[in-house]
Specification:
The chain is α/β, with parallel strands linked by helices. Helix content is 35%, strand content 18%. An eight-stranded parallel β-sheet has the order 1-8-7-6-5-4-3-2. Strand 4, helix 4 and strand 5 form a beta-alpha-beta unit. The longest helix has 16 residues.
């Protein structure tokens, strides 16, 4: 039986009340707090740095899932670990020496993830799959919140699940982009296990209640 986890993305949270926003989704049953880091180069936006990770760490004991959408991620791995990250994922497209980066994340005590953009083929993972703890598939083009799920990624999730079951069954699949209450169950059935939801959680009237609704849908699949 698979274990399904909800990872609300604070990219869509109220930063003036970040601690309250995190507390609300934690009460609602969130399993992880997803933190999107953008540098304005790899993606056309600038967002969060280690200071916000440190603030999030002070607000919750939940694992902090840090997604680095940045060029040369190796330069900042230690900074994010020191700030309180538990998981760090880096993009295949932005990492020149991916195996070394993955090893370094794990040496620093974090789980290491590798990220693929929607148009990036799964074949680029062939050599790294045995080494990683999770793979994050982007189901929108990275850089902005509140985008629509790219339907072709569904096939990619299924293909990745079959590949992992053969090569690295312990490696988990995370999906980020366009996930809501309307499609989370379908995406889970395809083989995903961790679900990043930003605006679908934080841009609702009550993020705590919305988190509970997400968890209830996922719990139905675990029984």
């Amino acid at each position: 039986m698979r274990r399904y986890e909800l990872a609300p993305s604070i990219l869509s949270a109220n930063f003036a009340k970040l601690g309250d926003s995190i507390a609300a989704v934690e009460r609602g049953g969130a399993d992880l707090i997803h933190i999107d880091v953008m540098d304005g180069h790899f993606v056309p936006n600038i967002t969060i740095g280690p200071l916000i990770v440190r603030a999030a760490r002070a607000s919750t004991a939940l694992p902090l899932d840090v997604h680095l959408m940045i060029e040369n991620p190796d330069r900042f791995l230690e900074d994010f670990v020191k700030a309180g990250s538990d998981m760090i994922s880096v993009h295949v497209e932005a990492s020149t020496h991916l195996d070394r980066t993955v090893q370094r994340i794990q040496e620093l005590g974090n789980k290491a993830g590798v990220v693929l953009n929607p148009a990036t083929p799964l074949g680029l993972l062939d050599e790294i799959i045995p080494a990683v703890d999770y793979i994050l598939l982007m189901s929108v083009n990275p850089g902005f919140a509140a985008q629509k799920f790219i339907e072709t990624v569904k096939t990619k999730i299924s293909r990745l699940r079959a590949l992992l079951d053969r090569v690295n069954p312990e490696c988990r699949i995370e999906v980020d982009g366009g996930i809501g209450l309307h499609n989370v169950e379908e995406i889970a059935r395809l083989g995903a296990e961790m679900f990043v939801a930003g605006s679908a959680v934080f841009n609702t009237e009550d993020p705590e209640v919305t988190s509970r609704l997400f968890k209830a849908k996922l719990a139905n699949l675990e029984t």
